[in-house]
Inverse folding.
């Protein structure tokens, strides 16, 4: 797991296979920001989703990635964009 361009991501926690927490360097004003992204793994069918039982707070955000459309998996590329106001 590596941050390639931070834009307010201070660290990434690898929670387990296909599960990640993005920790913000500076908290956002609230946990009501917009987030979007994609995952890619060398041509395999992949997906990125927001963890429904995970954190979606002003200071952290959790995502999950899959391979072949079903099983949690670490993907080669995971891109996430978050839009919100800094506190």
């Amino acid at each position: 797991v590596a941050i390639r361009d931070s834009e307010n991501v201070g660290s990434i926690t690898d929670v387990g296979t296909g599960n990640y927490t993005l920790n913000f360097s500076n908290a956002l004003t609230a946990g009501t920001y917009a987030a979007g992204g994609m995952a890619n793994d060398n041509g395999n069918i992949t997906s990125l989703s927001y963890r429904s039982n995970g954190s979606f707070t002003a200071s952290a955000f959790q995502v999950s990635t899959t391979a072949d459309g079903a099983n949690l998996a670490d993907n080669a590329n995971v891109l996430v964009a978050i839009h919100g106001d800094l506190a």
Summary: The longest strand covers residues 9-16.
